[in-house]
Amino acid sequence: METQTIKNEQNTTTVTERISGSEAIVRCLIAEDTKIIYGYPGGAIMPVYDELFKYQDKIHHVLTRHEQGATHSAQGFARISGKVGVCIATSGPGATNLITGIADAQIDSTPMVCITGQVFSHLLGSDAFQETDIVGISTPVTKWNCQVTKASDIPAAIAKAFYIAKSGRPGPVLIDITKDAQLDEFDFSYEKCTRVRSYNPVPKTEISSVEEAAKLINAAKKPLVVWGQGVILSEAEEAFKAVIEKAGIPSAWTILGASAIPTSHPLNVGMVGMHGNYAPNVLTNDCDVLIAIGMRFDDRVTGKLDTYATQAKVIHFEIDPAEIDKNVKTDVAVLGDAKASLELLLPLLNENSHPEWRQKFADLYAIEYEKVIKDDIHPTKEGLTMGEVLHQINVQSKGNAAIVSDVGQHQMIACRYAEFNKTKSNITSGGLGTMGFGLPAAIGAKMAAPDREVVSISGDGGYQMTIQELGTIFQQKAAVKVVVLNNDFLGMVRQWQQLFFDKRYASTEMVNPNFVAIAEGYYIKARKVTKREDLADAVKEMMESKEAYFLEVCVEKEGNVFPMIPTGASVSDVRLE
Amino acid sequence: MSTEKQLYTISVYTENNIGLLNRISAIFQRRHINIESLNISPSEIDNVSRFTIVVNMIEVDVKKIIGQIEKQVEVIKAYYHTLDQVIYQISGLFKVKSELLFEEPQIQNIIKNSHARIVTVNTDFFVLEKSGKKEEIAELHEQLSVYGIMQYTRSGLIAVTKDEMRISELLETYNN
């Protein structure tokens, strides 16, 4: 290895070494403090894998069983750690298999850097073996992407990728690197990126907008906060808690905002949206000031826009200017980082407690408890419910577990009933609703936070979409607790078919395999529960296991998730049955 | 804010990077918006490109589009204007048989009255260039159609605003 020292114009010294592009890729990842990457090898990325072999004491590569698993694992890693998740794949099918996870990360603002190999640059555009236009394919679902065809361009591209992925509103970034760029040698040096001309990740917070927000909040008789993942991404949890406690504002969360403050916090009034809690949905159309913090008024949250909080003044704390007025017209927009904005807001607020207004939430909760929650978590009828499984997990974890859910009925049940004491504990696919997300995301979460209990909760449908990642769990010895709530149905679709398609269960019934045998085939301890009297013991055994554990719970076949706001209905038309 | 559909010019200042056209056009595609015309050229600032995009939309949707465009990492700034807020031109090229120049005296009057410019003449054809408003080029097209047009093409709309856009100052603030 040849080393030389170059003096640049500013008279600072940069040490350069002549190395290959593929070694440069690995060295750049190390410089960005990447310790784990998820991926799958193939022809166009083999030089990088060869370097990863040499640098395995510095970077641990996790061989997932499918590239989609690599992206979801990287997402799980990022969501629990707040760091950038990294995955790697070969060209063509390897690259296209990343797309679902990239799209998921884009809509859920998850920082991720994906590196794909590409055919030799002289073959680009010639339909060469395993060539796809991955930059073109990934453009609509990445925050930024680029193709590198020269080895010497690699360090700047990777530095820019990490900076863009994690700054401002985070997101996924893809860098496609041709094989000749991986093989060619150049004089390597690395400098982290700290700014990109034309990119303003965090808009400046106007103090006047904060003052205006404070004025509205101080004058409000019935204020309601709806917070989203922005609170977690900007690490604003403490500032957020201080704001709602000082002003005494009942606060509800979107699915990705869950766990930012503890479930048991007296001002936490539950989840909003299609399967959210009764009180915050109904009272959205009763509040006089709606304070949205780090959330984007997704249609699953707002229901019919024409009738959404039309009586309320709307304040929107948001880092992404494109979200302002996108779905809901705001009266005051506070642009900027949530933490910084909330810290500016706090001293301007009057102390308040709104006892009568908060009582309204308590009264509606009592109705929801009687009509829905009691039977969900303490059922008296025969079949096992998904809610009681969650209840048992809460009992055993004491609210300290990270819950990684897949997509479907079990996801809504998990989000409704899982109890959280710590932030970054609810990891799920919110915006894209990606079945198959749960199992690989749990692997990433467990590897990022090995000291935490990580419980993956899936339905029998989504579980089988990425079931092969049991192989990754086994090989990596990732002590993930895997729960499948099996109702032999694609439950959420079946629920809709029951309610809106006259019970025509078109292609939603599943004939399932022996899940326990499959888990055991991957050398994972496994147990199946079909009776209520065995549930508590099985969950306890699972949670006490030091290794990975698979638990299948056969739940009632036609259980439904309520409350529910049918598509196109108003949030205040939430159905309890 | 206008709730009527009308033509807007969207001006986008960007880095001169591969792939940006794809990213920007995808924003229109996702929302099912037809681009009436699109022109990309260097701008008054070195290494900064300027897109001039013409769309027929209502203003509230144009504002949302502007937000989505500005969100792209390599976009410096995007603006929108109604046609009366900009000075714009379109250029049309007409290829016509040379013999018509001599056999149809009216052709010479059409050229003269339309203020079109002859770009080239050879024994087979001549090429006319006409810059102006869309209607002026359409009118010339209509007049020449009577005699037969061998080839015709028209450029996208290019525009400068009547107001100053102060992009250089904005870039300065990015640099600091």
TrEMBL record, chain A:
The keyword Transferase applies. One of its GO terms (biological process) is L-valine biosynthetic process. Its EC number is 2.2.1.6. Keywords: Amino-acid biosynthesis, Branched-chain amino acid biosynthesis, Magnesium, Metal-binding, Thiamine pyrophosphate, Transferase. PROSITE patterns: TPP_ENZYMES. One of its GO terms (cellular component) is acetolactate synthase complex. It catalyses: 2 pyruvate + H(+) = (2S)-2-acetolactate + CO2. Residues 20-135 form the Thiamine pyrophosphate enzyme N-terminal TPP-binding domain. Its cofactor is Mg(2+); thiamine diphosphate. Pathway: Amino-acid biosynthesis; L-valine biosynthesis; L-valine from pyruvate: step 1/4; Amino-acid biosynthesis; L-isoleucine biosynthesis; L-isoleucine from 2-oxobutanoate: step 1/4. Residues 210-344 form the Thiamine pyrophosphate enzyme central domain. One of its GO terms (molecular function) is magnesium ion binding. Binds 1 Mg(2+) ion per subunit. Binds 1 thiamine pyrophosphate per subunit. Residues 406-553 form the Thiamine pyrophosphate enzyme TPP-binding domain. It is an enzyme of class 2 (transferase). Pfam families: TPP_enzyme_C, TPP_enzyme_M, TPP_enzyme_N. Belongs to the TPP enzyme family. This is Acetolactate synthase. It comes from Tenacibaculum todarodis.
Automatic annotation (TrEMBL), chain B:
Dimer of large and small chains. This is Acetolactate synthase small subunit. It catalyses: 2 pyruvate + H(+) = (2S)-2-acetolactate + CO2. One of its GO terms (cellular component) is cytosol. Pathway: Amino-acid biosynthesis; L-isoleucine biosynthesis; L-isoleucine from 2-oxobutanoate: step 1/4; Amino-acid biosynthesis; L-valine biosynthesis; L-valine from pyruvate: step 1/4. Signal peptide: none annotated. Residues 9-83 form the ACT domain. It comes from Tenacibaculum todarodis. It holds the Pfam family ACT_AHAS_ss. CDD domains: ACT_AHAS (cd04878). The lineage of its organism: Bacteria, Pseudomonadati, Bacteroidota, Flavobacteriia, Flavobacteriales.
